[in-house]
TrEMBL record, chains A, B:
One of its GO terms (molecular function) is DNA-binding transcription factor activity. Pfam families: LacI, Peripla_BP_3. Keywords: DNA-binding, Transcription, Transcription regulation. Coiled coil: none annotated. Residues 9-63 form the HTH lacI-type domain. InterPro entries: HTH_LacI (IPR000843), LacI/GalR-like_sensor (IPR046335), Lambda_DNA-bd_dom_sf (IPR010982), Peripla_BP_I (IPR028082). This is LacI family transcriptional regulator. It comes from Rhizobium tubonense. It comes from the Bacteria.
DNA sequence: ATGAAAGCGCTAACAT
DNA sequence: ATGTTAGCGCTTTCAT
C-alpha cells in the first residue's frame, strides 16, 4: 500500500501535458464553452494518460454550486428510510448529484447538531423527516439559503418543500376501516410516540376518529424501545394479558403488526374472527404472509424520488401530497 | 423563500467582526494552536452573532484531508446494507466523519462509474461490498491513494482492508448442519447468483459440501429478480411443484426463506417434519416467527462499525474476520 | 477558440 | 498569542 501517499493529478498537469491552458481543459471536461475537436482530443488523451480525476471539492468551491444533497434521517433500521433513500438516490445519480446522510435516532437535538454539520458542506438541499424540528434547526436551515425538503408528514408547517402524505389522514382512515368492519373493542400496540411523532399523529387521529363514533379505545400498550417485530409480539402479548376481550388491535406500523400476527399464529388465536390486526406502511412482506396484512401502504420510494426530482430541478416551494392506499388484506 | 439567495457568512467576516485575524478565528474554531480565553470569547460571540457556519468545502481543500467516507453499495432493499451503514454511520458521526453513498444495483459497471464519481470527492476511504470488482475499479482505487475497505466477503484478494466473514464457510456450515440433521433430499431456492456473487459463493460451497458427503443437490429454483419474501414464496412453490419429494430446502437468504416458510404455513406443509427450511442472514424477524428460522446470523452492523473504526484510525491494511453464527432455530 | 489571472473560503506555515 | 500570506485545485470573467 505504498501508493497511499501518491499525489493526485491536477488539472494544471493535464493542461501542461496537453499543451493547452487550464481553462481549456476545464471547458472540455465540462463540455461548456467552445473548443475545437482537435483540442478536445488532445485534452482527453492527456486525461486518459495521466489518469486524471477531477477534484470536485475544488470545483464546488470555485463555482459556489454544490451538487450535494444532505439527508438527515431518524433511522436506518426502520425500512421507511432506506426506501426513501433508494428512491432519491436513483434520481440523484441520474442527475449527477451526490447523497450524503446522517442518522438522528429520532433525537431532535441530534438532528440539530447534524443539520449544522451538514450545512458546513454547503449542500444544494437538506432533506429531513417530518416537519417537527427544534427552533435552532429551523433557524439554521432558513438562514442557510439552501433548499429544505421535509418528508413523510404533511400535518404541519413546511419550511420550503414538503413531500409525503398526511399521517392524520392515515390514522383516520385506519379507524374508519375498523369501525366499518364492525370492530368495537379496539386496542393499540405502539412504540415510543414522543420520538416518532408521525406514529404519534396517526395514533392521535385514530383515537379521535374512534371518539367521534363513541367507540373509545379500550386499551393500549406502548413498548419501550424502537418498533420491531419482536416488540410487536411482546406488546400484543402484554395487551391481551391485561385486556383479553379485544376484537381488534391497531399497531404503530407493520413491523409491530407482524409481531402481533406471529403471536396469534403461535397461540392459535384465530385471525380475524377472534382478533383483527391492522398495521401501517404496507411492507412487501405483509402481502405474502398466509393472511395478507390489513394496512395502509405509504409511497416511500416515490417520496424519495419526487423529493430528489424537485431538488435537481430547483422547483419552487410546494407541498406534494402523494397520498396512501388502504390495503384491506385479510387480518381485519 | 427570499432568504435563499443570501450569501453565507465567511470566516473573514467573523475575523473582522471580532477584530482579530483570520487564522485566529480558524484556530479557535478548531481548538488548535494557542489563543487567549478573551480572544476565544470574542470570536465565539462574533460567530454566534453572525450565524457563521464554517465552509467545509473550503476547509477540506485547504487542508487536503478529507473526512468523507464513500459507500458504494449494491442495494438499499437488501437489509444487509442499511445495517452496515447503520453501524458505520454511528462510528463516523462520533469521529466527525461524513458518510456519502451511492447504489450500484449489483452492477459492476455501475460500480466502476460510481467509484470514479466518488473519487472526485477525494474521500478518506471508499467502502465497497465484496471483493469482486472490475479491472477498472481496482485500478482507479489503487491509483487514488485513498483507503479501500471491502465488506462482507473474505473469499478473495483484498485491495487494502477487508471486514466480514467467509461466505464459503457459511455455505459449508449450512450444508453440514442439514446433513447432520439427517436431511438427504435437499433443494435450493435462490435469486440471481451472477449479480449477487456472495450468494453464489455460499451456494457453490453448499453444493460442494453436499457432494463431499455424496448427497447431491436434488433440484434448484432460481427466481428472476431480486431476493424478496415474495420471490421466496414463488420459488419454493415452483420447486415443490417440480420436485415434491424434498426433505429440506436451502434459501439464498432469510427473506427468501421467510417466503418459503409462509408458503408452507399457508399450504399446511408441516415444518420441519415434512420439509425443513434454512436461510441466511439471521434477520430479527426470523426469531419471532412461530417457529424461529434456522439460519446463519451475519454480523452486519458490526461489519459497518469495525470498518468505520479502522478508517477513522487509519489502521494498516488488514483482514478482519468477524465470523458468523449458526442459528439452529426450529425450521430445520 | 483559447489563455491569463482573479478569486472561491479556508488552513498552514511563517513571522512577530 | 496573534497576524500575514501563500496556496489548495478548480471555475469564471475578460482579453485576445
Amino acid at each position: 500500500m505504498e501508493l497511499r501517499h501518491q499525489v493526485a493529478v491536477t488539472l494544471a498537469e493535464v493542461a501542461e501535458a496537453a499543451g493547452v491552458g487550464e481553462s481549456t481543459v476545464s471547458r472540455v471536461l465540462r463540455s461548456h464553452g467552445s473548443f475545437s475537436d482537435k483540442t478536445r482530443e488532445r485534452v482527453m488523451a492527456a486525461v486518459e494518460r495521466l489518469g486524471y480525476v477531477p477534484n470536485r471539492i475544488a470545483g464546488t468551491l470555485a463555482s459556489a454550486g454544490s451538487r450535494l444533497v444532505a439527508f438527515v434521517i431518524p433511522s436506518l433500521s426502520n425500512i421507511v428510510f432506506p426506501d426513501v433513500l433508494r428512491g432519491a438516490s436513483a434520481v440523484l445519480e441520474e442527475n449527477r448529484h451526490q447523497a450524503v446522510f446522517a442518522v438522528t435516532d429520532y433525537d431532535p437535538q441530534k438532528e440539530e447538531a447534524l443539520v449544522a454539520s451538514m450545512l458546513a458542506w454547503r449542500p444544494a438541499a437538506v432533506v429531513l423527516a417530518g416537519c417537527e424540528h427544534t427552533e435552532g434547526t429551523a433557524k439554521m436551515l432558513r438562514a442557510s439559503g439552501c433548499r429544505i425538503v421535509e418528508l413523510l408528514d404533511l400535518d404541519g408547517e413546511a419550511l420550503d418543500i414538503a413531500v409525503g402524505f398526511s399521517n392524520r389522514a392515515a390514522g383516520h382512515a385506519s379507524a374508519e376501516f375498523l369501525l366499518t368492519r364492525g370492530y368495537r373493542r379496539i386496542g393499540y400496540v405502539g412504540h415510543d410516540l414522543i420520538r416518532d411523532t408521525r406514529a404519534g399523529k396517526r395514533f392521535k387521529s385514530f383515537c379521535e376518529t374512534l371518539g367521534m363514533h363513541d367507540v373509545p379505545l379500550v386499551d393500549r400498550e406502548i413498548v419501550a424501545g424502537a418498533s420491531s417485530v419482536e416488540n410487536g409480539q411482546v406488546g400484543l402479548e402484554q395487551l391481551l394479558a391485561r385486556t383479553p376481550a379485544l376484537d381488534a388491535v391497531y399497531f404503530s406500523n407493520d413491523d409491530m403488526a407482524l409481531g402481533g400476527y406471529f403471536h396469534c399464529l403461535a397461540r392459535g388465536i384465530h385471525i380475524p374472527s377472534r382478533l383483527a390486526l391492522f398495521g401501517y406502511n404496507g411492507l412487501d412482506i405483509g402481502r405474502v404472509t398466509p393472511q395478507p396484512l390489513s394496512t395502509v401502504r405509504t409511497p416511500r420510494v416515490a417520496t424519495g424520488r419526487v423529493a430528489a426530482q424537485l431538488i435537481v430541478e430547483n422547483a419552487p416551494s410546494q407541498i406534494v401530497d402523494l397520498g396512501f392506499e388502504l390495503i384491506e388484506g385479510a387480518t381485519a
